[in-house]
Batch of 4 targets.
Target 1
Amino acid sequence: MSKSSVIILIIAAVVFTGLGFVVGQVMAEGSNPGSADDPVVSESYVDKLVGDRASALQTQIDEIMAVLDSNGSTTSNNDNNTDNNTDDNNSSSTQTVSVTADSVNIRASASTSAEIVTTVSSGTVLTYLSQSSQSDGVWYNVRTSGGSTGWIRSDLCSSPQ
């Protein structure tokens, strides 16, 4: 191989290496691992994103259901609680409570050790059914817009309105 061919090969190798470096930098500049722009993301990122969006949608549904309930839609009280400390609200208008804590568990009975029925986020509007005084405080029996019923501690939401 002649001396000029070797020089041309070396120059070509340097040019292609430099070009590859520049193209790589330009392409890598557009996305950061774990960001919304990165097509390869972690499971925790996806779980958080889906959870946030589902929570926002549930809040919107709850608000719409509360508006529908307050516009004359009738709801039945399916409270099967046999607790003697329960104060039933028999008013003709539907009352609601709004969740004030970030993330709140709705439980199957008025106890922090009871099974979790569902979890709601701050701002979620729930239909108030009744309340119960327990050793750890007052609990509200509520219904979600999806029809699930359960118990929420009164210090985690607004007073019934």
Target 2
Amino acid sequence: MIRSLLLSLLLLFAASASALPKASLVSGGIAVLPLEPDQGKPEFRFRGKPVLITHDDNDKPVAVVGLPLNLKPGEYHIEGSYGGRKQRVKKFFTVRDKQYTTQRITIKDKRKVNPLKQDIDRILREKKRKQKAANSWNDEEPDTDFLVPVKGIMTGSYGRRRIFNGQPKRPHSGMDIAADKGVPVLAPADGVVVESGDFFFSGNVIYIHHGEGLVSMYAHLDERDVKIGDHVKKGQVIGKVGATGRVTGPHLHWSVGLNGTWVDPSLFVDKP
């Protein structure tokens, strides 16, 4: 009886571990494209960047493609091959239009809206580090069935057009989850810490690469409990919620990236 129960639990875990993110063919969304099985290892790119290849619950290969927030509606494709063959294959999909809402925010620290001249060099250095982390790559197939990294209330959704102190700024590249300072932040899946530091806008920040270009980012932390190079496990505490950087109060900013572009994190979890 006990053996049977344990086996059932293991099978349940195995099924959930292979869960794919939800497809959403809009700017900032995700394309989940079935590939041909038994044709050799698939290798595909979207707009010049390699895309994540994983497997569905039936162990068939699929491409999981991040769609940039500035992508215009229309027909697009990934291109690649199977088993290193010279023959090129294209998989087409159509992206629909989506209108995101606008959010007006008042920041007390005006320097975080209009940085001083001496801040610019720091911001540019940090931008290069962020880009490098977001474009991380290795060939390990990741777990795409993410945990929600912190318990709280979603206060800022992905894609919102943001106006800080009356000035239009870049759209929101992640999900904001309000929680008390000090609440633990968990790794949503196994991965390697590829960046960590105290950044001008993001405050205390951590980047985790989960494999094949799937990257997650955690900003405004009060504490960072992991360092660059650390291997983290799904559900491991990586830091604490805080109010560092450009914020109005304690919360976690959580971003998820695919093939070098930030996408909607809610597509990776059942209940954002």
Target 3
Amino acid sequence: MADKNKVSRRAVITGLAAGAGALAVNASVDANCGSCGPVGKKVVKGAKKGLHFHNADFYTNGKFNEDKAKDACIALMKYHGYPIYPDMKENLWVSDYEIGQFMKVGLAARMWKNNEEDKYMQMDIFLMPGQMLPEHWHLATEKNPPKREGWLVRHGLSHIVGIGEPNLSKDVVIPKCHMGGKTETAHATIATPGVFVSLAKVLTKHWQFAGPEGAIITESANVHDDKGVRHSDPVANKYFIKLANS
């Protein structure tokens, strides 16, 4: 992708896919150590007033409403005092991975730079309270190597999960709409503001799960593209492969 201030939907997907990337996890600072039923109110234990959302609000005639998802992301930014830059909403990328449960499995991100010439990228990730970024990993492509990346939590809390001895907190409830409530990896670093977590091993599966106040995370990485992204969940995987070939 060219070095531009504004990025296309496909470009954001590229960095995003690239971006929310491969865990199995090392922390540079010591970290403090739902089922998908009928559409309804998403209430996360411990969440404060102002961060309650209804999954139904993000769907119009059964179709994912990106504009409303972006509004919720802006609300998350305001809640945490994150600066809302010009054209912030316009340049957000949001997705429910065609699973239909945005408040349980989904993602919002703002790509700041995805420089294919010099092979670096940076973006911010926004997770709603109790939202899961689905399990995935990154392959090499014809254009780029496998993804190397790291995450700095700016606001809120994220359980950053990858390979290693299972240690998931009881606060992490994998939604039933994600592989029947399962993942292949279950070793978490509980990352709070100021905690940086890096990819421990390339090509490994990873995912995240936001705390009760959501999470805002800055990611730094080498450039990558969506053709190299694979998801454990077959619905999410089919969705991303379709995007990569569109």
Target 4
Amino acid sequence: MFEITLEESFSAAHALRGYQGKCERVHGHNYRVRVSLQAEQLDPAGLVMDFVDVRALLRDLLEPFDHRLLNDVPPFDTLNPTAENMARHFFVGLSRRISAQGPRVRVAEVRVWETEAATAAYRE
């Protein structure tokens, strides 16, 4: 199994609903998002997927959230904007974009950093 990993970042604010503590108030993070893709076979050029293409897909996925209040942006206008929910949302969104290009490559994991020391990951 081959695997590639790529990271992007974005800045956003959020407020956690149903949370008892200071994070229930609006506050911001410089989020880091790491995606790992897997393939059993490489393409004819010897790649799982071109990093340029992965970066473009990931940037397109993250762009609606950059410098926004996540609580105002679907799906987080109704779904609590936790790092766990973001990791799953980005996993599903990237999986749809990747699968549209064929079945050879799959998303293995999406990990979201809220801080340097706090991460959440989603994988299926």
